[in-house]
Every structure is written in structure tokens, then in C-alpha cells.
Specification:
3 domains, 6 strands, 40% helix
């Protein structure tokens, strides 16, 4: 998509369409492969795409980003809880998005589907014993490293294995 006609009478300038906003722009001569115009939103989009591609293809970058995220969360405990409390529209949008995801997965009820990290209740004394854990084939939504398992009581009288 080259456009000729330089008003100064010099060499024709090539114009391109911005990959973010679609507007036509003149790329900087120093940046041969420039695909984004200089608008701040378009530059943000350029960086966002670069980061996404980098996370997919570079395990070191992905690991570093994950560690940085965990460190930030440790330093700002309670941030998201406070944010959701102050922004009910965010909370509602998130719930609606989750309903849509559940619907696409064929889930019946939200309470049957979502497993949160520390969501289980403390077991009572009747829970102690030996059990078999086997992965369930019916996949649901799980956060973190949560497993969906089927627990079958074998016997209360057999002592646990060391």
C-alpha cells in the first residue's frame, strides 16, 4: 500500500495502515517494519501484543512475569478485594462473563462448576480414613492448582500408609 506524491518533491513516502486503529500513517524511516502509528493507545496495543507473544514463546520471560506478579500480590494483599468492593460494575461484569464461559462449557450451575483455592470446608472427624483419589473425566473450571477428584471411602479400620 504505497502512496506516491511527496509535496516537497523528494522521494515518495510510503504510507501504511496502523495495525491497531487502522488509520493511515507515515512510518519513521529509522523503523523499516513499523506497523503501528504513534498514538499512545496504538503504542500500548503494540506493547500488549509483544508481551503476549513473548509470554507464549519464551519460558524464561513467562516465569519472570509470573514471579513478578506473585511478588506484587504479596506486597499488595487485599488489593483486588478492595477493588471489587469499590467497583460493583466490575464485579457484575465479571460474574456475567463467568456465566457466559460456563454456558459455553455446558455447565449447569455456577456452584457446581467453580473450584477456588481454599474453598473447601474443614472436614469433621467422620472424614478421617483411607481414600482413593482418582481424576474425574468431567472437566470443570478450577483455579490455581486445584484438582477435581472423586473420593471413595475404602475403610475406616485400615491405618494410613506411611
Amino acid at each position: 500500500m504505497a502512496e506516491t506524491g511527496d509535496p516537497s518533491g523528494g522521494v515518495a513516502m510510503q504510507r501504511r495502515r496502523c495495525a491497531a486503529c487502522g488509520a493511515r500513517f507515515r512510518p519513521r524511516p529509522q523503523i523499516r517494519e513499523q506497523r503501528f502509528c504513534s498514538l499512545p493507545d496504538c503504542q500500548r496495543e503494540r506493547r500488549r501484543r509483544w508481551k503476549r507473544r513473548k509470554r507464549r514463546t519464551d519460558p524464561d520471560y513467562r516465569d519472570n512475569q509470573a514471579r513478578a506478579q506473585r511478588a506484587w500480590c504479596e506486597r499488595h494483599r487485599g488489593y483486588w478485594r478492595q477493588y471489587r468492593r469499590r467497583h460493583p460494575q466490575y464485579r457484575e461484569r465479571n460474574r456475567e462473563q463467568q456465566r457466559l464461559r460456563n454456558g459455553r462449557r455446558g455447565a449447569r450451575q455456577t456452584s457446581d462448576v467453580i473450584a477456588k483455592r481454599n474453598a473447601s470446608k474443614a472436614p469433621g472427624a467422620e472424614f478421617s480414613g483411607t481414600y482413593v483419589l482418582q481424576p474425574m473425566t468431567d472437566q470443570r473450571i478450577a483455579k490455581g492448582n486445584a484438582w477435581t477428584v472423586k473420593i471413595t471411602a475404602i475403610s475406616r479400620d485400615i491405618p494410613p500408609m506411611a
